[in-house]
Every structure is written in structure tokens, then in C-alpha cells.
Amino acid sequence: MTDIKICGLSTSETMDAALAAGATHVGLVHFAPSPRHVSLADASRLRAMARGKAKTVLLLVNAEIDVTAAAIEAVKPDVIQFHGSETPEWCELVRKQMGLEVWKALGVRDLPTLEKSVRYLGKVDRILFDAPATALPGGNGTSFDWSVLTGFDHQIPWGLAGGLTPANVAGAITQTGADLVDTSSGVEIAPGVKDVDLITQFCETALGA
Ligand SMILES: O=C(O)c1ccccc1NCC(=O)[C@H](O)[C@H](O)COP(=O)(O)O
């Protein structure tokens, strides 16, 4: 069965919807320029709702070490997702020092980008293949050409992100064989405004694929 991450949750109502619909992972964005940014206090409150029901993924972008440590200490996520230009060495350091699951997002343009992921082998728990950064490092609602994934020798568990919606997620799973699908703007009615019905539809469709 494919794991499902609903990213960029910021309200109790939409967190409840994601948990009720069967999301395996819920994402909290702590990155001030994002319309989905949540404070550490709000992230901690939302994290408590998910405890024991889904894994909480805290998302940071090129954060300094003190900010990273403070965020992990405050929110106590199950997973930290790095969505900037964090190096394999940085990911490994955080994974060892903080003792939690570490994911690295990579914006995919072509096969060489996929090949870059191998540098993270043994240093992260999952690679998230996303569309390349545009206005924001992620959460832009754009897809990449999934055909580059065909035949690639994945050495690290991976997930698929970028422009996934209730309408295309089943096809994405069938085409790519992703172990995890991740959506943010595909379940929104405006940037940062999640919709309960779209969250439910996305999860139902992904679970049925
Ligand atoms: O969601 C954001 O606002 C965001 C901001 C900065 C870095 C990453 C961000 N999101 C990361 C995610 O994991 C998204 O779910 C992923 O990029 C897919 O987004 P979308 O194409 O909107 O479904």
C-alpha cells in the first residue's frame, strides 16, 4: 500500500481530516516565506493531534543548526524533511545527533538529478522527488516528468511529490510505483488554505490505487 503525506497542514480541522482519511504522514512547514508556515507553538499543537495516528514530518529549508535543534526540540517530530540545499553531510549529522528520521527533497529536472540522490545513500531515510523550485522551494503545485523515474535503480526509499491532486494521484502511483505520495497545493482552494473534501478525495484515491 502506498503511504500518503499531506503537507502544509495548519489547522485542527484539516489535520483531523487528514488523519481520518488515512494519511500516514502529516507535514508541517516551518519556513516563514511559505503561505503554509506554522509557528513552533502551532506545530507542536498539531503534532500532538497526530501522535500515534500518523507520522509527523517537520519541514525546514536551509535552517541554521540552532534553529534546527530548537525546532526539533519544540515539535518532537517523527521525521525532519530538508527542502533546501542541505548537503548529505548535514543530513547525516542531524540524523546521528538528533536520532530521528531524515528526508531530503530534491527538485527533479532530468536523470542526472536522480543520480545525485545516490550521494545521500546511508545519510537519509528517504528521498522525496519533487518538481524543481520556482517561487518557493516546494509547494508550488507543479510536476516534473515522471518518466525519468522509469528504470532508475533506486537505492534509497523514495517518495513522489509535485503537482499531485485527487485527479492525477492514481495515475502517478501506477506509472511510477512510488512508495509514498505527497501533496500540498493539490488539496487547497487557495495558497495555504487546505480543503477537507480534497484531502479526503486525495487519500481515498491514493488508497484505492
Ligand atoms: O509547501 C510549502 O509551502 C513549502 C515551502 C517551502 C519548501 C517546501 C514546501 N513544501 C514541501 C512539500 O513537501 C510539498 O508537499 C511538495 O513540495 C509538493 O507540493 P505541491 O506541488 O504543492 O503538492
UniProtKB/TrEMBL annotation:
* A Gene Ontology biological process term: L-tryptophan biosynthetic process
What's the domain of life for this entry? Bacteria
- Pathway this chain belongs to: Amino-acid biosynthesis; L-tryptophan biosynthesis; L-tryptophan from chorismate: step 3/5
Record key words, sorted: Amino-acid biosynthesis, Aromatic amino acid biosynthesis, Isomerase, Tryptophan biosynthesis
Q: GO: which molecular function terms?
A: phosphoribosylanthranilate isomerase activity
Which residues belong to any copy of the N-(5'phosphoribosyl) anthranilate isomerase (PRAI) domain? 4-204
Q: Kindly give the InterPro entries that the UniProt entry links to this protein.
A: Aldolase_TIM, PRAI_dom, RibuloseP-bd_barrel, TrpF_fam
Q: Which reaction does it catalyse?
A: N-(5-phospho-beta-D-ribosyl)anthranilate = 1-(2-carboxyphenylamino)-1-deoxy-D-ribulose 5-phosphate
Q: List, alphabetically, the SUPFAM superfamilies matched.
A: Ribulose-phoshate binding barrel (SSF51366)
Query: Gene3D superfamilies from the xrefs?
Result: Aldolase class I
> Which family does the entry's similarity section mention?
Belongs to the TrpF family.
Would you tell me the protein name for this molecule?
A: N-(5'-phosphoribosyl)anthranilate isomerase
